[in-house]
Amino acid sequence: MATQRLNTFTTKQKILAAAREVLMAQGFTGLSTRAVAGAAGTQMSQIRYHFGSKDGMVLALYEHLTEQLLARQTEVFTDPSIPLSRKWEVSCDFLDTDFDSGYVRVLQELIAVGWSNPQIGDAVRLSLRRWRDLHVQLAQEFAAKTGGLGPFDAEDIAALVGSAFIGTEAYLLLGAEAEDLPVRRALRRIGKVIEHYERP
Length: 200
Prior knowledge:
Blueprint: H1 2-26, H2 33-40, H3 44-51, H4 54-77, H5 84-101, H6 103-114, H7 118-146, H8 154-173, H9 183-198
């Protein structure tokens, strides 16, 4: 029984890894269960068995990646010994890592698919709300320490932070970052503004 569970786990992990590989190389339109099965070295029936469909497989991949990243980010964000300016800097580092790992591509592909696919749209909105909740918590803590956020409330700040990162990801994937459009540099410099307000 233990061997069977291990084999099941291994097969599912292989399929998810292959799905990420194919998605990064060919995009959602080029992602087929046949291509993923070939990349995973397994049968298409295994994809149907474990995930039910192409959409089920992609959603499982997205959930798997999102859970890992939320756990990583939560660990940093909830550490009271790390100032918010440093948390921002680490988040920018994570953006670079997530771009290289393929997570950014997966997210942006699913955002686009979610415009016309309600199931995928619901899954993406749910995960974005979980990120938003983390950002609201940070904004509330920062407001408590600094005496306020000017005309913004914590929900405003969370909306702007999420939009800034999602927008930066879109620019990067399009190859639109340029000397006169320094999206990553501009994002990092927000940390300097935060640092200014952290000073006693």
